[in-house]
Design a protein that fits this description.
17 helices; Growth Hormone, Chain: A
């Protein structure tokens, strides 16, 4: 499918969404200390509170936003979300109290519609056979933003703790203007669905989407995949310091290599794999590759080997868009937003649980009372989670799933 202006807008939106997270990460410790005082430990505690508040709101309101986009359309929901994102960054840029930072993260979590609505838009404009590959484009855009964001945030942070927030607000405002000019509405009267409060809460939405044939086990797999993959952002800096003695610069280089590799895999390589294997076999291959990659990371002792493995592990990321593609083809046209909202909520649950699970596992196997020294233990947990997810997915026949 050619990259039209509306699709370019969607990809830029996802990239800016990803960049916005990375832009503010380098300055958050200093900003929290500047606003609330205290030492680095207190700043880290508040940083955890802010991140958790964002994830909880995303879990609660993801289905609401998804259902709103099924009723009122992708265009107004996405543009309003971008507008609120601009205001959110500006509030955090001028915040003089911790409660304002917390309010900003709560609002940001509520309106975190960009990613799920972008996926719903992509589902609307894609032929069934192209959905997985086009979801891969969104994954590629996210990967590019993942690389650019922290680099740009680190540079802007030299001009003050507020500079990255103003930059993020300016990027979101420019993209909202671009969207106003080029984005069409893809929700027609044929697929428009009345808004239902019963389906807009997370539990009602889970029940409705989970009742579709084959979707329930796919949601379980999606959750386990998200938790497993969170091992990278949760413990990578700690793992590489403990195992290889890497400094922050090398950690940043390795994460950049990982982000670039995901962009290459999901933006281009996945189309070749899907054309050869189809969605279902691509998903199974991705699960298998992830199991091997996580197991290798669990036991690797050479920093050079780890650098070689880092981009190779990105190949396993073909599983996520293939899984999204299969679920999108099962869900009816008038529930694409609801599906993506549910997936946003699932990812939010993983975002809440995974950091605690991974960091506690790391501490358990590196602390003074560790049964044996194994900094890569969280990756072993990830391998087991992927194995469990594969078993759940393969435990029943395909049923009515329309996969090739």
């Amino acid at each position: 499918m050619p990259i039209s202006l509306p699709i370019l807008f969607i990809l830029i939106t996802v990239m800016i969404d990803s960049m916005g997270i990375g832009l503010i990460m380098p300055v958050m410790p200093d900003l929290i200390r500047e606003v609330g005082g205290g030492d680095l430990a207190r700043a880290a505690t508040w940083g955890g509170v802010l991140a958790t508040a964002f994830a909880v709101m995303q879990f609660l309101f993801g289905p609401v936003v998804g259902n709103l986009s099924d009723r009122f359309g992708r265009r107004p929901v996405l543009l309003i979300a971008l507008g609120v994102m601009v205001l959110d960054y500006l509030v955090m840029a001028v915040a003089g109290a911790l409660w304002l930072l917390l309010l900003g993260r709560i609002i940001g979590g509520i309106t975190a519609a960009t990613h799920s609505t972008a996926n719903a838009f992509m589902a609307d404009v894609s032929r069934p056979a192209d959905k997985a590959a086009n979801f891969g484009l969104i994954g590629a855009a996210f990967g590019i933003g993942f690389v650019i964001g922290p680099l740009l945030g680190g540079v802007l942070g030299q001009f003050g703790t507020r500079a990255p927030f103003y930059a993020a607000a300016a990027l979101a405002a420019a993209n909202m203007t671009f969207g106003c000019l080029v984005m069409p509405e893809t929700v027609t009267d044929r697929i428009r669905r009345p808004f239902s409060r019963a389906r807009a809460n997370p539990f009602g939405a889970f029940a409705n989407i989970g009742a579709l044939p084959g979707i329930g086990r796919m949601l379980v797999l999606f959750f386990l995949y998200e938790v497993a993959f969170f091992a990278y952002p949760a413990i990578w800096a700690y793992f590489t310091r403990a195992r290889f003695g890497w400094e922050p610069g090398m950690v940043g280089v390795s994460l950049a290599a990982f982000g670039i590799s995901i962009a290459i895999v999901q933006g281009g390589l996945i189309r070749l794999i899907l054309n050869r294997l189809g969605d279902r076999r691509t998903l199974i291959a991705g699960i298998g590759f992830n199991i091997l990659a996580f197991a290798a990371m669990a036991v690797v002792t050479s920093g050079t080997v780890a650098l070689i493995l880092t981009p190779l592990t990105a190949i396993g990321s073909v599983a996520e868009p293939a899984l999204r593609g299969m679920m999108s083809r099962i869900a009816p046209d008038d529930a694409q937003g609801e599906l993506q909202g549910v997936l946003s909520s699932v990812a939010a649950i993983a975002m809440i649980l995974a950091p605690l699970m991974m960091t506690q596992t790391f501490a358990m196997f590196t602390g003074p009372s560790a049964p044996f020294y194994m900094p890569g233990a969280p990756f072993a947990v990830s391998a087991l989670l992927m194995l469990a997810g594969g078993a759940v997915f393969l435990s029943r026949p395909r049923g009515k799933a329309k996969s090739r």
